[in-house]
Amino acid sequence: SSPVKVFGHATSTNVARVLLCLEEVGAEYELVPVDFLAGEHNTPEHVQRNPFGKIPAFQDGDLVLFESRAIARYILRKYRTPGSPDLLGENGGAEEAAMVDVWTEVEAQQYHPAISPVVFECIIFPVMRGAKTDQKVVDESLERLRLVLGTYEERLSKSRYLAGDSFSFADLNHFPFTFYFMATPYAALLDEYPRVKAWWEDLMARPSVKRVCANMPTKFCF
Amino acid sequence: SKMAPVKVFGSAAFTNVAHVLVCLEEVGADYEVVNIDFLAKEHKKPEHLARNPFGEIPAFQDGDLVLFESRAIAKYILRKYRTGEVDMLRESNPEEAATADVWAEVEAHQYSKAVAPIVYECIVYPTAYGIPTNQKVVDESVEKLKEVLEIYEGRLSKHEYLAGSFISVADLNHFPFTFRFMETPYASVFDSFPSVKAWWEKLLLRPSVKKISADMQKRV
C-alpha cells in the first residue's frame, strides 16, 4: 500500500504532532508542502482536505482527515503493530484509555493555553509577521504556566508518566509547543520543576522525537 | 450484576457537566449528580482538588476510577456503555472513528472558541459575576461564528450528522454550549445556515437532549 500523505511543513507544531505518531508506529509517509506565502492553504484543493484552510491535512487512500489530534489517533489505531507501544492505552482496558484521554485533554485545555502564547509572542509572531513581543501577554502566560507546571510536578510525583506508568499519547502531545518554548528566553522555567524537567528530557530522548526534531529549528532570525 | 451508579460532581447548569450528563442519558446509564457549591468555591477545596487537580467542574467517579475533563469523561462513558445500537465513538472502525474525532476536535478548537465567549459575555459574566457584557468581544465572536457556521453548512448540507450518516460524539459535544448560545440575543445567527439549524433542531428532539435541556434550565 502507498505511503500516507501529510500536508504541511515539518516546522509546524500541529504537523509535528502527526509526524511523531507516524514515527512511533513506523509507518511510511510523504510530507507534501503547503505554500502559505503563496496562499496555497486557501486554494480549493487544500480547502477540500481541510475546510478551515489550516495545516495539517492527511490522506490515506480515499480517507481525508484534518485536525492534528484526530489524525494522530487514527494513525495510532490503524498503524499499530505488535512492536509499537500502545500509546492510546486501548489494550489496557477502559481505565487506562480514559487516563490517556484525561491528560490529552489537559494538554489541550490547560497546558496549551498557558504555554502557547509565550511561543507565539517570542517566536511565531516575530518570525512570521515581524511583530514585537507583547511582554504583558508573556508575563501573564508564564504566571499561568507556573500554576500548571506545579500541578504537573505533583502528578509526576505519583506516576512515571502523565497517564500512568507507561508513556502515552498524552505525553507525546506536549512535545511540539514545549520544544519551541525551550527555544524562548524562558526555558529555564522548567528547571524549577525537576520532575517535569526529567519527564521532558525522557520525551526528548525518544527516537521518534529525535527524528522529528531534526527538521525543527531551534534558532530564529527576526 | 447491576453496575453501581457512577457519580458526576457538579450541577447541570454548567455546560461541561451537561456534556457528561447528556452522554450518560444517551447510553442509559445509572448516575448520581453530586452538587459542588461553586459560589462557596467548593471546587477549589482539597476534597474536590483530589478529584480534579485543576480545581474545575466536572469530576467523575466510577468505583475506584476518578476522571476529569468533560471530553475525556464523555469518551469513557460512550466506550464503557457502548452497545450494538448506541455506538457514538465507532472505535472498531478506524475510518468512522477518525471522522467522528475530526469533528469533535473542530468543536473543541473552532466552534467552542467562537461560541463560548458569546455565552460568557451575554449570560455567565452578567448573571454569575455582575460583570457587564463586553460588546466588542461579542461582535468579534459572532463574526468568527458565522465563518465557522459557513463551513458547518457545507458539511451538514451533504451529511445528516457531522461524522456522516451516523450520530456520534461529535454531534453530542456541540449540545451544551449551543443550548446556552440559543439563550443569548444572537440565536437568530443560525437562521442563515438552514442545514445547521435543521441539524440542531433534530438534536433537540433526542430524549437525552430534552432531559438535560430541562436540567440546564434550572439555574444554580
UniProtKB/TrEMBL annotation, chain A:
GO (cellular component) term, any one: cytoplasm
Keyword Membrane: no
Any one biological process term the GO annotation gives: glutathione metabolic process
Domain spans labelled GST C-terminal: 93-220
Name of the featured protein: glutathione transferase
Keywords of this entry: Transferase
Family of the protein in this entry: Belongs to the GST superfamily. Phi family.
Domain of life: Eukaryota
Cross-referenced Gene3D superfamilies: 1.20.1050.10, Glutaredoxin
EC annotation from Swiss-Prot or TrEMBL: 2.5.1.18
Organism whose genome encodes this protein: Aegilops tauschii subsp. strangulata
Reactions the enzyme catalyzes: RX + glutathione = an S-substituted glutathione + a halide anion + H(+)
TrEMBL record, chain B:
Positions of the GST C-terminal domain: 93-220
Keyword Transcription regulation: no
Signal sequence, renumbered to the chain: none
EC number(s) on file: 2.5.1.18
InterPro entries, per the entry: Glutathione-S-Trfase_C-like, Glutathione-S-Trfase_C_sf, Glutathione_S-Trfase, Glutathione_S-Trfase_N, GST_C, GST_Phi_C, Thioredoxin-like_sf
GO biological process: glutathione metabolic process; response to herbicide
Main function: Conjugation of reduced glutathione to a wide number of exogenous and endogenous hydrophobic electrophiles.
Residue ranges occupied by any GST N-terminal domain in the UniProt entry: 4-85
CDD domains listed in its UniProt record: GST_C_Phi (cd03187), GST_N_Phi (cd03053)
Protein name: glutathione transferase
Top-rank taxon: Eukaryota
Entry keywords, A to Z: Transferase
Gene Ontology CC, one term: cytoplasm
Family the entry assigns: Belongs to the GST superfamily. Phi family.
Keyword Transcription listed: no
Organism, as annotated: Aegilops tauschii subsp. strangulata
Catalytic activity of the protein: RX + glutathione = an S-substituted glutathione + a halide anion + H(+)
One Pfam family this sequence matches: GST_C
GO MF terms held by the record: glutathione binding; glutathione transferase activity
Catalytic class of the enzyme: transferase
